[in-house]
Structures
1.
Amino acid sequence: MKSHVQVCVIGGGVVGCSVLYHLTKLGWADVVLLERSELTSGSTWHAAGGFHTLNGDTNMAALQGYTIKLYRELEALTGMSCGLHHVGGVTLADTPERMDMLKAERAKHRYMGLETEVLSPKEIQDIAPVTNVEGVLGGLYDPLDGHLDPAGTTHAYAKGARMNGAKIELHTLVTATNQRVDGGWEIVTDKGVIIAEHLVNAGGLWAREVGAMAGVYLPLHPMEHQYVVTDEIAEIYDRDTEHPHVMDPGGESYLRQEGRGLCIGFYEQACKPWAVDGTPWDFGHELLPDNLDKISDSIEFAYKRFPVLEKAGVKTVIHGPFTFAPDGNPLVGPVPGLRNYWSACGVMAGFSQGGGVGLTLAQWMIDGEPERDVFALDVARFGSWTTPGYTLPKVIENYQKRFSVSYPNEELPAARPFRTTPAYDIQKEMGAVFGQQFGLEVANYFARGEEPRYETPSFRRSNAFEATGREVKAVREAVGINEVQNFGKFSVRGHRARPWLDRIMAGRIPAPGRISLTPMLSPKGRLIGDLTVSCIAADEFQLTASYGYQAVHERWLRDNLDDGISLENISDQRTGFQIAGPRARDVLDAVTRDDVSGENFRFMDVKRMTVGMCDCIVQRVSYTGDLGYEIYSDPMSQRALWQTLWTEGQKHGMQPFGMRAMMSLRLDKFFGSWLSEFSPDYTPGETGMDRFIAFNKDADFIGRGAVEAERQMGASRGLVVFEVDALDADVVGYEPVWINDEVKGFCTSGGYSHYAEKSIALALVDVNCLMDDLQAEIEILGHMRPAKRITRMLFDSDAHRMRG
Ligand SMILES: Cc1cc2nc3c(=O)[nH]c(=O)nc-3n(C[C@H](O)[C@H](O)[C@H](O)COP(=O)(O)OP(=O)(O)OC[C@H]3O[C@@H](n4cnc5c(N)ncnc54)[C@H](O)[C@@H]3O)c2cc1C
């Protein structure tokens, strides 16, 4: 065994082997994989081997598409068979809501280049004749669906990696991992010690235990899972071609041909977590005892959907565990708080996702950034607040909802409420209907009187529509109040703070007492943040950005920190409220002794002031696009701050407003939002964020070369705003934009402007189509809706109110 390597991968399941393969493919050959037993000794050997591209997250779906297309390449390279069966698959819809979901998926696939197709019940019956289509409204066919040989595929990855120089040490158990002062890792095994510059945790079923060796808690948990293989079935072996996969979400089952019979697996409601107190080290080559009782309801349902099953004998039952993260997506990337420690865990669909996970991690390690936005799988999308007590109920929920319809406005209930601010009870008392961001309860809107305290999950306008309209009106006509806890906030201090910020941020760093908006760029010039920088004093700044993205931002800021700078994540230490609307100044003026007149407290000013009894930092900005103030206090005084603002606000018609209203209000001003218009998938030139770049500043900011090149070349697409002639569903994101019968772009987000009473879409469109009078069609839930470009903001287009 080598004593020093560049990378040590722990775990020889499909994921570890894919990471190893991709590291060597991208050029790092001094890599070793340690496996405590034989390859595939965790979940991998249990797998049914099915693969598919469908995933609620578009980039995850793209990575799944990459994984599936990789198998042929792997076979050609290694001469080994992955046992591929590209038979195609159809996902059934037995409710209008599920049909909506499939149509929305189909629409996304149009610009992703995936050739999926919506089928009628008759067409489903024709291609998948074992299906009883009674009650089925239609389905989505994906020609890429199929299955493979899990062991053969894992060994093909391993061979590919070895051919490129990687070493694999079998029967080598890692017992400890210790961070070295030089940032590398000492990896202690039962065969000796290896020193590695980088460590990858691909421990699968044991990833929790491997993480704990470095003092890390990785939020994942194993669940038991079962599938049944039948004896021979004449309707199957009499066919000339292999039967396609059939996913029946209504019955929570997936079905495919296995030899001359069928194989069917279930995501049952009566599911069971496995190894709650930790995965035993001696587990690996055994199955869990059959438990057909647990799936008896699902089997009953399956007999109706696939009647041939009722007569078929059971040949084998496979019952094994595999791991899930709280939201079902993998946990990939640099683990916050540790140097050179990489996660490749929580992969619940190793044969759909393993290739994409390997590629992403290898790009991240070698190039410094993955080629696309990978927030959906970034290990930092969960914060240090996650615990086993949180993860377990979320993982159970995720398993049970694996085949449920996912709605864009859905708020999942498990493990809530968890993290709340002091204002939570006050808001609840006022009828708040909460959502959840990064574990935090956030008011989405306020129900009144008899209105239900629950938003119906829907692809169409929900029952929150009226309340949202009411809140928008209160902001635009008087004054609204909304909590500002849900921003990620950082305090940056030190005499070198300004030059450091000038290097980290592409925009202008403001003078004391002023605020600026600035993009933060990756070295390749992609957007990794849109931040508000407030200069509170010469050597003290507050950075404000996305709450849900705070751990990703913190990791980046710390990785790029200079000596002598103090950086503190104060997201949960600085809380408060924003007030917005034409009467906002009157409210603030009445509760502070400071002069807040337009001349003395200008748009984009920041000041420390006493508000009521509370010491606050007040910023004159508002995402509502109206006259507004963000008023931050410490959490201990948040309730007092509320009393002050609310009591005074009553004289001015103040109403509370939530996130739904905020997202409608921002549309009036065409404001983009993080991870919709602005994300690592896009560049400043494409999204108009280049107007915030200080190209003339005397600082070599990160990404400078790339954005200067983009400025010279011009971007290939641009962000535009459409008014859509929508029916009862507005744009959510990723709907294709058709221009002259061709898909020329896609929506980044949208919604309903209650102020202008218009359905609005923001979209990235081919730069050659960017004329002012552009007419297009946007495909919403299978309907082509006419859309016309608008260039004049719907509210306060001269910014008179916002800046006045
Ligand atoms: C019944 C069942 C059916 C499934 N069907 C499908 C399917 O159809 N399609 C699909 O895509 N997925 C399916 N899966 C899920 C799939 O099996 C997993 O997504 C995949 O195997 C995860 O692979 P992994 O490499 O992350 O983890 P694992 O396979 O668990 O591999 C981890 C490896 O790390 C090694 N290891 C751990 N700790 C150490 C240590 N300290 N030192 C050295 N080595 C260590 C282990 O021995 C093991 O080999 C199924 C799972 C089950 C249980």
Note: The CA atoms of residues 212 and 218 lie 8 Å apart.
2.
Amino acid sequence: MLSTERLVLRRWRPEDLGPFAEMCADPEVMRWIGNGGVRTRGECANAIAAFERAWDDRGFGLFATELQASGRFIGFVGLSIPAFLPEILPSVEIGWRLAANQWRKGLATEGARAVIDFGFGRIGLTRIVSIHQVGNGASERIMEKLGMRFERATVDPSCSRPVRVWEITRSDWEQREPRATQPTAL
Ligand SMILES: CC(C)(COP(=O)(O)OP(=O)(O)OC[C@H]1O[C@@H](n2cnc3c(N)ncnc32)[C@H](O)[C@@H]1OP(=O)(O)O)[C@@H](O)C(=O)NCCC(=O)NCCS
């Protein structure tokens, strides 16, 4: 479990299925994921089971994400293996998906910063990638804000959509700017 100023990132629970399925039935949320199709409740149940298996097998995965203040489930942020893009394997991807009524408050970036610290600091990864479809400006902006670098443009063979791959290495992360405002020497 990780916590940030406004979020709790944790393993999945059975009661996450309802709000997760609601989010994945929203065409606005799913627009830039795979072929852009929405998911059924059954597909979401299978997805949650797969997220939990990944946690058990690898020791990292997608965190169910809730608001610290209310405990409300709002989506996920976390790490996965981008098997849909074989040309960049082996690699570990950071990704995010939040309910539309939570967008544009900086929550995905806040969660992603904690996940990058987890990936490099706790899991010992040497490199993390992130992939967005061309047109998904919000995800691209998050990658920039995280200090990631553009790595390549390619096509997702599973849906033939153009994608852009970004990366951050462990040494980039070690040399990152301190986040809190530092006192300036006079
Ligand atoms: C992508 C997503 C997680 C972003 O969540 P969020 O909490 O709104 O993100 P943040 O507020 O932390 O940051 C978004 C940044 O993108 C900017 N942004 C938002 N929409 C944008 C757009 N259409 N084009 C360009 N920039 C955009 C925001 O202004 C913000 O940047 P800023 O802090 O410099 O102003 C959310 O939109 C989402 O769940 N989308 C659907 C699922 C998805 O596409 N997942 C990613 C697949 S790669």
Note: The two ends are 40 Å apart (CA to CA).
